[in-house]
């Protein structure tokens, strides 16, 4: 079997989507080393400007970086204005203290001025809170919507097959929460603390210009301490985020495989493995928070040094300064003691939580399914008959891997029932995936009614032309109506008719279409879930129906009911059936036997059985009786108790 790279070289450029040329996302190196899952990525060093730019872009509906930056500048100005108002109250009280004359006459003036400043401060703070909240909510909603769209349109083999669900859940939970909740709080605190420290320093310099002697070295040491603290905190935050994903992955695997762990007595081994990963995450978490005392000690030390310098200036120049100014200057300097280390910490926390924005940004690189927006739309009546043709189809799941389908060619005429059989790994389900364009072809083409599917928009292909009934039926929490017709495209009468044809309507009881459906259809049997999927496909009225071993997990009696539904309700559609039981496709119009990604035998079942090849051997080993040419007439009763 050839390699995918060779097939891609020989294929037409149009047959290869851009997604196939991209490296997998959320990986450390983007390289495949033979393992299915790829390692989680971790950036090193300072944050890129792209992380900040993408955050600001989400602040506006248009996605404009300039408009987003203007909004944040406006919020910053409101923070500055609020701090100016707060500082003005202290200055006003200082001037009030220095005022001379009859206090009774001056009281309304000073009290009125103080009240006016307070009212202005309240209004500015309210406006700041409203604008800041609106911006943050828009960023959160925009980022989440963007992520969901990227994940829903992701290429299955290049993303879902190589990235564990726990890692995706980590991004959608902790990282998104850090961006939604923690980052806005730290940004607000940082802006407030920075403006407060700046205002306090300005007051000290105003009281005595000699305070700048202590202010300059303070600023230099502040920058040095912040850089040292931020570098360590940023990398520890990244390590903590990366070490958290295995916890989600392991916990999900433990829940899924709990029965097997108990059966083989591996509970303690699994528990030790999980505890080891918890310890690894706790180590990063502990070291990250152990940096806080480091910052507090140095920040308070710098502030205390500045207060000492300011006090020395007051002692030296005390006679030339007003008492009220001395009090104002010392009060402003003392305020630095609590605020300076907070400013350092909040600035570092802003950068730390921007690492979550950086991690969420990686969804921009998720390989997407090809949309073919530039391709001409098929005629409105397409597909009219449902003829399916495979022409030298070659397919691989990822670049540089062997071909899974290697030159597959067959034709299924309109309205025919075609059964696809073969050993496990022979390429049966891959043919279905290729027909739905879950994986883009490396060579050849697939046509429905003469239309190349590579040029058909995915929404039209999957939403109108082709319907599938999977082996594992999936139901969403809600009602039967929601699962039957989630987009409300059909009437209640059509819903009832579809359920009646599948034999499920009577089993629903008095609630009918409003019968509740629990998560994953837990309150329905496997057979009922499968019948509901049949009814859903019936409403679609697709010309091509795919059944991927739809009867593999149900009993023979329910299988008989499903086969009757296929014959009566889908008589005008082209059926491609991957069979678990050979009896379900023994009377098919066409049998396609797959082996190692190639068509080994194809033709009518009776002819293949007379030929004495692989298909005849499979039927003989299964003990299937010879059927009349017109098909099976001795089906068991299809009345099923649900």
UniProtKB/TrEMBL annotation:
GO: which molecular function terms? Answer: ABC-type transporter activity; ATP binding; ATP hydrolysis activity
Q: Which PANTHER family match?
A: ATP-BINDING CASSETTE SUB-FAMILY C, MULTIDRUG RESISTANCE-ASSOCIATED PROTEIN LETHAL(2)03659
Report whether Repeat shows up as a keyword of the record: yes
What species is this protein from? Symbiodinium natans
Domain ABC transporter positions: 388-621
Localization (cell): Membrane
Q: What is this protein called?
A: AbcC12 protein
- Keyword Nucleotide-binding appears in the UniProt entry: yes
Q: Where is the ABC transmembrane type-1 domain?
A: 99-352
**Which Pfam families does the protein's record reference?**
ABC_membrane (PF00664), ABC_tran (PF00005)
Q: Look up and give the membrane topology term.
A: Multi-pass membrane protein
What are the alphabetically sorted keywords of the record?
ATP-binding, Membrane, Nucleotide-binding, Repeat, Transmembrane, Transmembrane helix, Transport
Q: Which family does it belong to?
A: Belongs to the ABC transporter superfamily. ABCC family. Conjugate transporter (TC 3.A.1.208) subfamily.
A single GO cellular-component term on record: membrane
Membrane-spanning residues: 64-82, 116-139, 151-169, 194-225, 302-321
